[in-house]
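sorry for the late reply, my laptop died twice this morning and i had to redo everyting from scratch. anyway the thing you sent over, i finally got around to it. pasting the sequence first so we're on the same page, its 143 residues, then the predicted structure underneath. double check i copied it right bc i was rushing
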Amino acid sequence: MPLCCVEEVGNALAQILVDGSNVLFWRGGQAQSEVPTLVVRALMLRRFAPIVYFDYTVSLHLSSLELTSLSKVAEINIAPRGTPADVLLLDACCDGRIQIVSCDRFSAWRTYYPRLKADWLVTGRVERGGRISFSKKLRAAPI
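ok and here's the structure:
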């Protein structure tokens, strides 16, 4: 069943998509293996159920142990070889019904996704002490 067809039931957490290949580089432009977990935990504290997408090459930056650890707290999707994770993310966001956490503007994909809007995208950064902050575009999760 496509993500956008899943309905929230009872106390289910709101889904949010994470561009794992992008957030991996949020700390100083260098791949930092702990950042995706920091982002996921920060979103979970805000009552979201993160779904993390990585490019096929994620194994260059994260070990299988790190991916397994991350998969215990969030759903992980690794794009097949030859398929950019961006395509999977943009398809899964269901025309903005599910927001994407990424500092990528997806400008290369705008011709393929003409309804892509800036409010679908939530930017963020790693602050001192490993605290994650998100842009004000992050929609509040339902209570």
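Residues 5-9 have pLDDT under 50 and may be disordered.
thats about all i looked at so far, will dig more tmrw
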